[in-house]
Amino acid sequence: MGRLVVVSNRVPSSSDRQQPAGGLAVALQDALSHGEALWFGWSGQQIAQAEASNRKPSEETVDNVTYATIDLTHAEFDGFYQKYSNGILWPLCHYRAGLMDYSRKDREVYLTVNHLFAQQLRPLLRPDDIIWVHDYHLFPLGQALRDVGITNPIGFFLHIPFPPWSLMKALPGAERLMHSLESYDVIGLQTEDDARNMNDGLEQCGVQTRGQVFPIGIDPASFAAQAKACEDDFDVQRLQQSLRGRPLVIGVDRLDYSKGIPERFHGYEAFLKRFPEHKGKVMYLQIAPVSRGTVEEYRRLKQDLDETAGRINGMYGDFDWTPIRYITHPVPRHLLAGFYRLADVALVTPLRDGMNLVAKEYVAAQDEEDPGVLILSHFAGAAPEMEDALLVNPHDADEIADALHKALTMTQSERQERWERLKPDVWRVTAGSWARDFIEQLVRVERG
Ligand code: ADQ
């Protein structure tokens, strides 16, 4: 096999690479460690239009991996990243067409940046490279690479859901987008539902290619070891002492409307109302670092959450008890692992999610003698593999309330049985196996 070339919107910075905080960097760690590799994408830097004409990728090689990045102009960042990727494709793929703020101009910028990626990547490519493109920012990159003469095998993986064609076609130019997918040799999606939706769309548009399912996982062994090693960490101990023997319910999400955090707060409120015996006797910690804070919809969400948490704390709290501890800054990964292990219950209730790695991390972090309970939304991509979690409809506050009560009163033996049944899948489908399976398919294409 030739070199593996990964293309994603963002390339992790050198500090992110030293301590990858989840996401793609962690998932690809294993795949990038075998042989020579190139990772190409946006640097995260913005430049003025005047500096754009003589742009060239800047390259940095660390061990066997070369990281090549380009800067985007302010207008490219705005149209490609903020508006089209995060203001149109993200809501639409999460079944929220109503939040889509479409403009033809942004679509043009999106296509232009995809062509820019192709032009800038082309001189760095070798004839025997295999190319792996990631996520919705780069749907048309395969086509753009073919347009500049690249004939290498190209794969595409979509990390987020793919909606039914009846919804997807609300996107002006959706058919063109589906046709552009024909340039890929392998297309990967997270779940059977996503693959069915995409394949139906491809069929309706008369496109021959088809998507396949490659569910993503975590590195459970190292995550479990990290969680255990963190038990005595100063900050984990601080959290434990602050609980004063009360059970801990934890939520960990990027602050995003797809994660269902307001609905979760309402579920917790319904729980306090309907099961008052838990008042003052439980702690709910929600960690939700601000993401995409410059997009209007995300600002509105943050305001809504600030208000809802404040209202619930004001209404149900007491002078010695705060119902929701809510923080909007990130927590280092090793501490997260320790917090998960300490938590008696995890609330993972997205309205729609490609996979949701937090659910898998929570299972991996548990103490097998005394595991906690996972409450998981039916609409997380992880749900079909995790039927022994307490599965809930996140839109139903009472269902979340019932699940919380059930989790907090569950016997130790039931908790153990459920966890024993959740564990094998988390250990079987890992980040490493996901990347290996996908790359194997691409290599098969290369061999013809
Ligand atoms: P995300 O939407 O970012 O990813 P998710 O899979 O839950 O969602 O989390 C990715 C990583 O970020 C996890 O490793 C998690 O620990 C970390 N993370 C989340 N919240 C955090 C917090 N508050 N503090 C610190 N770290 C936090 C997208 C898709 C998902 C899909 C992944 C991978 O939206 O559905 O599972 O890609 O394909």
Automatic annotation (TrEMBL):
Recorded catalytic activity of this chain's protein: D-glucose 6-phosphate + UDP-alpha-D-glucose = alpha,alpha-trehalose 6-phosphate + UDP + H(+)
InterPro entries reported for this sequence: Glyco_trans_20
UniProt-listed CDD domains: GT20_TPS
Pfam families: Glyco_transf_20
GO molecular function, one term: alpha,alpha-trehalose-phosphate synthase (UDP-forming) activity
Assembly mode: Homotetramer.
Protein name stated in the entry: Trehalose-6-phosphate synthase
Naturally occurring in which organism (per UniProt): Acetobacter cibinongensis
